Amino acid sequence: MKQLTANQSVARFSVAVAALALLSVALGGLVHGRLSHRWGEPADLVAAAEVLNDFPEQFGDWRLATKESMDDSVVETLQCAGYLSRAYTNSATAESVRVAVIVGPPGPTAVHTPEICYSSRTYNLEKRPESEKIGNEQDGDTFWSVKFRSKEAGGGELNVYYAWASDGVWRASESPRYEYGGLPFLYKIQVAGAPSPFGVRQEEDLCKRFLQDLLRSGWRVGPKVGNEV
């Protein structure tokens, strides 16, 4: 067999390395394309968005106050197939919360957390996320609870609860991008509100009470999807 010269060996090695690099980039693009659904929204993602139409306008002591629209740039960044953004008022205490629920491909839905969004605007992170169980102690839903403080002089606190779901159970996932990456869609819920006003005494903060009442109402997101962890 004819032996290769040193230059020929180096050339072949370089070609092999280049081919491996190209394959790595191609596979990376394929995975990212699947996570972000850059090639269009599948039918099950469209159907998942319709679940948001059933979000109740009143439950417990909470009443719908306003419906809001997200900026087009935010919808585009999150690649939302559907969303709702609302304010609710408690008829018994006059407290108010804002709730947002989005559904979209797992990639962008998983990575945009309140710690990134709020901290980059007008708030400082005051308390790092802690997992809170709501509902049945054994199989209840779990949410991340995080606290911010306004950067303005004398600024107040803002409590935020958030979680992800694909099968009707909300989870405070530590790695949602990887835990849900193989699924066709992912929901995220986020509830924000200031601490109870002076004179209102409650054992739980208003965001947690809002979520407790929402879960008691029976509203849940889409059915279980294959490959769920």
UniProtKB/TrEMBL annotation:
Q: What is this protein called?
A: Methanolan biosynthesis EpsI domain-containing protein
Q: Which InterPro entries does this one have? A: Methanolan_biosynth_EpsI
**Pfam families linked to this entry:** DUF3485
Give residue ranges for domain Methanolan biosynthesis EpsI: 21-163
Organism listed in the record: Botrimarina mediterranea
